[in-house]
Amino acid sequence: MIVLRHCESEFNRLFTATRRDPGIPDPPLSEHGHRQAEALVPALAGEKIDRIIVSPFTRTLQTAAPLAQALGVKPVVHPLIRERAAFSCDVGSPPARLALAWPELDFSGLAETWWTTGIETPEEVEERAAIFRTEMSASPVWRKTLVVSHWGFLIALTAASMENGSWRRIDPTKPLPAV
């Protein structure tokens, strides 16, 4: 499967400049992030993607949108692949608000507060990543799946840090490399 870290959000842009939490819940992509998302369309054009799984945060939904449109694939929203709760950006939006912005997507499976409240331990994120890895290993279409997620979750899933807008192939049936 291909895992993709969402493109640059307004939170990332401001945090990178100041190294302080700018206090933006569920931030959208920055202008640069929108350009990164558009650039993913030709970058991933040669990949065989039949399925897109996306975290319910605005930044991942906006990252997936140009790819989904170009490929004619409707993303599946999956809260298990949300970011590790640690900053203001890790507070999400209620399903009704998300459905207004993306009426073509199904948010009906989300709880009103689907994100983690408080700070999540690395072990809790690793547990979510292990559950998702097992789900993907059992899926007959994992090889043609794109997963759009977040830095902390992807570290737990892949044992590697990824930059905004970067992607890599992983095999969920193989164990994580030792760190």
From TrEMBL:
InterPro entries: His_Pase_superF_clade-1 (IPR013078), His_PPase_superfam (IPR029033), PGM_Phosphatase (IPR050275). SUPFAM superfamilies: Phosphoglycerate mutase-like. It holds the Pfam family His_Phos_1. Transmembrane segments: none annotated. This is Histidine phosphatase family protein. It comes from Acetobacter musti.
